[in-house]
Amino acid sequence: MENIEQLRNKIDDITLQMLRLLKERTDAARQIGELKKSSGLGVTDEAREEQLRREVSGLCAKIGLDDSLGRKFLNFLLNESVKVQSEGKQTHLTVFLKAKALEQQGRKIIHMEVGEPDFMPPHIAKDGFAEAFDRGLVRYGPAAGMPQLRAALAEYVTKNFGADAKQENILVSPGGRFAVYLAVNTLLNPGDEVIVIEPAWPAYRECAINAGVKVRTIPTTLESGWEPSIQQIEQTINSNTKMIILNYPNNPTGKVLPPGLQDQIVGLAQKNDLYVLSDEIYSLYAYSEWKSVLANKYAKSIIVQSFSKSHAMTGFRIGYTVADQKIVEKMSKLQALCVTCVAEPIQYAALKALDADLSENRRAMRAKLDIVVSEAKRIGLDFAIPDGAMYVFARPKKQGFDGLEFIGRLLERGVAVAPGEGFGNYKSFLRISVAQDEKSLIDGMKILHEVLEESR
């Protein structure tokens, strides 16, 4: 027993020493973060992280420590660095909150920072609320969703997305964002790695970091047409990699992957036994050849969809996941713990909305996108014409352009756009949402041009 106590005391001393070292490391990481901000550098440096991974693997081999454990510990440390260096980072949501605060002061703001369709939800959804009340659908329901809605969604995705889905493959969730959260938190463990192709919606990174999962980024460029390299993805995969996240049509670029390239990525995931989390909520607004990952019929695929964009039902907070039954069951258990279930009247309204004709929504969004593309060309912005979605991800041609400083001045003039840095290391880019009426879009782009000219 005396030897056990001595060893326990040794472990305690080592643990306390590790915490002191962690504090030193965190302070140094915070200082580096400040220097990065002042120098205009991004938070993540994949080349440096890869160098450190090699050193950790070498040390693990030398001292006889399991390499996977060493990599997981390193991933924890790297995530902590990302957290402290990301404090105060500007995203579309921070700009949105600033814009809302100005509106409360009586200012008029043209909202081109959020992707919220300006048209109304299908009228049939409104009727669904009254009918749900009359039917008594106002109680707790199954965590995975109403059987009637799940069955209808299975039929819908089978018909429209090339799936082979049944009711047990569907999970109804409060929005698509929560479905992403559920997938990451139930399928991955702390220290695991997930591959994200950037620019990317920031929620993927945030959900992963919150779960202790390390994000490995595959940066793409305007010059490459926002297409990832299959070789780069392959080289990033290691024993800790567990998932690849796809989002096409992409937020913020509007890129749609060529079907052949998407097939290669899914094939690579299958070869390495990885999950594929495919966020397809902009699928209605795909204006070039697009296909759902569901069509690949890969068992470890998790497809996220939502009524928010396609049906303009953002405030309803209802989305759904299509996946293998065992995956759905795992996600459903966590959903039951967090929110019990999605409100039955909302689910019934969504069920009714499935019968709505969305062709006018698609046409209207394409017309809005065409307006902003035309204006962006006239202004002389650098961008790739979007294949879909509801955004233009553009870069002013001014040398040394400071996106955050520009966005602040633009907001003072009554126009809100999203900073590129919220989607990765793209500080010189702006994400312009087209989800406004025609007059607001033209007025907003006119003001954007004026503020650009003032800064030349």
CATH level-3 fold name of the largest domain: Aspartate Aminotransferase, domain 2
Count of β-strands: 11
Distance between the termini: 76 Å
Spatial arrangement of strands, main beta sheet: 2-8-7-6-5-3-4
Q: Proportion of β residues?
A: 5-15%
pLDDT averaged over residues: 93
Radius of gyration: 23 Å
Sequence of secondary-structure elements: HHHHEHHEHEHEHEHEEHEHHHEHEEH
Number of domains: 3
Find the structural class using helix and strand composition.
alpha/beta
Low-confidence stretches: none
Name the CATH homologous superfamily of the largest domain. Type I PLP-dependent aspartate aminotransferase-like (Major domain)
Q: How are the SSEs placed, and which strands pair?
A:
Elements (H helix, E strand, L loop, with lengths): L1 H38 L6 H18 L3 H19 L6 H13 L5 E3 L10 H12 L12 H15 L8 E4 L2 H12 L5 E6 L3 H9 L3 E6 L10 H7 L4 E7 L11 H13 L3 E5 L21 E6 H4 L8 E5 L1 H15 L4 H10 L5 H21 L11 E4 L8 H10 L2 E5 L10 E4 L4 H17 L2
Parallel strand pairs: 1-10, 3-4, 3-5, 5-6, 6-7
Antiparallel strand pairs: 2-8, 7-8, 9-11, 10-11
Protein described:
This protein is α/β, with parallel strands linked by helices and 456 residues long. The protein has 3 domains: 21-85, Chorismate Mutase Domain, subunit A (Up-down Bundle); 92-119 and 359-454, Aspartate Aminotransferase, domain 1; 138-353, Type I PLP-dependent aspartate aminotransferase-like (Major domain) (Aspartate Aminotransferase, domain 2). Helices cover 51% and strands 12% of the residues. The protein contains 16 helices and 11 strands. It has helices spanning 2-39, 46-63, 67-85, 92-104, 123-134, 147-161, 176-187, 202-210, 230-236, 259-271, 307-310, 325-339, 344-353, 359-379, 403-412, 438-454; strands spanning 110-112, 170-173, 193-198, 214-219, 241-247, 275-279, 301-306, 319-323, 391-394, 415-419, 430-433. The strands form 2 sheets. Strands 2-8-7-6-5-3-4 form a 7-stranded mixed β-sheet, sandwiched between helices. It has a 4-stranded mixed β-sheet with strand order 1-10-11-9. β3, α8 (202-210) and β4 (214-219) form a beta-alpha-beta unit. α2 packs antiparallel against α3, α5 packs across α13 (344-353) and α7 packs across α12. It is globular and about 75 Å long. The N and C termini lie far apart (76 Å). 43% of the residues are buried. The model has no long low-confidence stretch (mean pLDDT 93).
